Amino acid sequence: MELPANLAPNAASPGWMNKADNAWQLTAATLVGLQSVPGLVILYGSIVKKKWAVNSAFMALYAFSAVLVCWVGWGYRLSFGDDFAPFLGRPGVALNEGYLLQKAFAGNIPNATMIFFQFVFAAITLILIAGALLGRMNFHAWMLFVPLWLTFSYTIVAYSIWSPGGWLAKLGVIDYSGGYVIHLSSGVAGFTAAYWGRAYFGWGWTGFNGGDPYTVSMDASLAVLNTHICAASSLLTWLLFDILFFGKPSVIGATQGMITGLVCITPAAGVVQGWAAIVMGIMSGSIPWYTMMVLHKKIKLLKKVDDTMAVFHTHAVAGSLGGVLTGFFAEPKLNRLFYMVDEWEHYIGLSYGIKTGDFKGGLKQMGIQLLGIVFVIIFNIISTSLVCLFVSRIVPLRLTDDELQTGDDAIHGEEAYALWGDGEKFESKHNSVYGVEEFPPAPATATKGRSELEMA
């Protein structure tokens, strides 16, 4: 295999490559990877019942490994390759040495670095979907679901929004680091898959959002700071709501608040001001809280679907909220810094459109953001449904009654120690409004507050 013409046989770094950018990109990718392995592997294995510890951790570990093989085999080229269609790249293998050592489509880094960076984003998307299916989906069905969903859903959404040739990218949709591609997609897909199968890691987000400028820049610094500002504001807001309505602070609730804040800021991380990140945190700590703690108990469809880790609320709702708020708070100057554009045709938040007199431009951006949300939701419902129906023709989607009763020993012949044993309930000793499989009744001291809330 021939090396690129601009890379001498003995040269470790070609002239176009920025060593600092490349080092940061690999570091950022590693941080995101740690969110999955061991982050989500440990989280899933420790928060579910003891009988599901092995299966839940294994689902995450399998997805991480399977996605990598599929990604270098065909996934990356479909997501970021040469233009083939407005929604898909030209198929191809990303293991050719000549290709790996060429300059990536963005930044001053080689394709090898970009492929690895984008892989960890694809992997965590599938692992987040697993969060809605823990202790529910047949493991053999999961083994088929992962490569199929990556191929026929993730690649199309990623190319449409993130690839320079994608149709939504050309329209000017703002998704800084995956609010649409990762979180909205995983939330909708997880909810849909759970429907068909019916009867964190906060510091890793430094690489998640800080790595997307593909360079060591001021924009990356702003993205990292805004990420943690929003997460902290969201955590505190969620915690406050728990205390006000349920009488006790919840560690699991605070974690959910942190996650919704991280998800909400993701599409906006480097293109909004710090004050806007705080506002987004307050909203991401309150609106998903309301959908999870109130609407989930009132809407028949939400009650019908067994979303184990409430991925719909923490990722689909929070991701959609982040996309809308991005369309409102996006700062034109910061967008120009990130997207490297001179014109003001795109990338102006509605609030700045009103402020500068370009109301039409701001309204157009908001429309593009909403279009992106609608596309991701509808496409994921259709693609995930088709994948699930196809898989169900080969193996059952849902575990058998015996496997549901027994857990890891019936599925893998193994058992593990987890945080809670079989039969233990939060309300028996440690009153909490959060449960793994369903939300238990509120503590007696908070009955009045809950009744008033549910009547709202």
From TrEMBL:
Superkingdom to which the source organism belongs: Eukaryota
Subcellular location: Membrane
Major subcellular location class: membrane
Record Pfam families: Ammonium_transp
GO cellular component, one term: plasma membrane
Domain Ammonium transporter AmtB-like: 23-195, 201-417
Keywords: Membrane, Transmembrane, Transmembrane helix
Membrane-spanning segments: 23-45, 52-74, 115-134, 141-162, 182-201, 222-246, 258-290, 310-330, 368-391
Gene3D superfamilies xref list: Ammonium transporter AmtB like domains
Membrane topology according to the record: Multi-pass membrane protein
GO MF annotation list: ammonium channel activity
Family classification: Belongs to the ammonia transporter channel (TC 1.A.11.2) family.
PANTHER family to which the protein is assigned, alphabetical: AMMONIUM TRANSPORTER, AMMONIUM TRANSPORTER MEP2
Protein name as catalogued: Ammonium transporter AmtB-like domain-containing protein
Organism of provenance: Liquidambar formosana
